[in-house]
Amino acid sequence: MARLAIEFDWNRDPKGYRLIESKRRVVRNGKGHTPNDVVHYRPLSSVGSLFLIFANIATKPAGVLDFVQRFGPLTFHGWDAAQGDDVDLVMFHANHMRQILKSWDGDKKRPHLPLGQPPSTSLDAQVIWDPAIKALKWELRPKSLLDALWLQLAQALTSSIQVRHCEHCGIWFEAGRGTGRRADSKFCSDEHRIAFNSVKRSKEK
Q1: 108 and 63 in one domain?
Q2: Contact 119/99 with Cβ under 8 angstroms?
Q3: What is the pLDDT along the chain (205 residues), one digit of tens a residue?
Q4: 179 near 159, Cβ under 8 Å?
Q5: Structural domain total, the chain
Q6: Full-model pTM
Q7: Coil, strand or helix: which one is 161?
Q8: For residue 26, which of 82, 74, 65 has the smallest C-alpha distance?
């Protein structure tokens, strides 16, 4: 199996973002582009499965704003204070991702992927030498945070980790080796399993 690494550097505006409902845009509050005007970080390294957070919350305008506030703009348009991220476009990507996850949560031998052209991803790729493992590996560098989320989703679905849908709260979560949840888990936490069964018992009375 080919070794694969995703490297992604991104920025956040320390002054935050706001939702302009009339234009359906999330725009940054700051206007500068110097090192003093942005916070540099690596979102994929700071948060484990960022694509799951995106798919869980970015399906409504308020959720798009919440995601951008926490992780920065999703596209390069988001860095333009006069333009910002297109809320409807972002929600389309989040909902398309949810459809893929829903499909994958069923018959994994032949998943029924959503109809239509899947969103494309832009990235740079190269083969590099990794001195830590003393072997060659692929290094992929997405062009935007939205590209990085799609690439992270693809990597997750082609690995041994399972992505499941919590029967209690409805969020998507990872299960399987290294996640702390069994591969066949139906709940994102033991608390939600207990709560679900408690509600179920009360309805049966």
Answers
A1: yes
A2: no
A3: 445 677 788 999 999 999 999 999 999 999 887 777 889 988 988 777 899 999 999 999 999 999 999 999 999 999 888 899 999 999 999 999 888 888 776 545 555 555 555 566 676 667 777 787 787 777 777 889 999 999 888 888 877 667 787 888 877 777 777 677 787 788 878 888 778 787 777 777 6
A4: no
A5: 2
A6: 0.77
A7: coil
A8: 65
Please state, in angstroms and rounded to a whole number, the distance separating the CA atoms of residues 172 and 96.
Answer: 14
Task: Give me the domain span that covers residue 171.
Answer: 161-205
Total residue length of the chain:
205
3-class DSSP state for residue 52?
A: helix
Q: Are residues 114 and 177 in the same domain?
A: no
CB 133 within 8 A of CB 3: yes
Q: Which of 102, 194, 117 has the alpha carbon at shortest distance from 153?
A: 102
Q: Hey, what are 170's tokens?
A: 């409805």
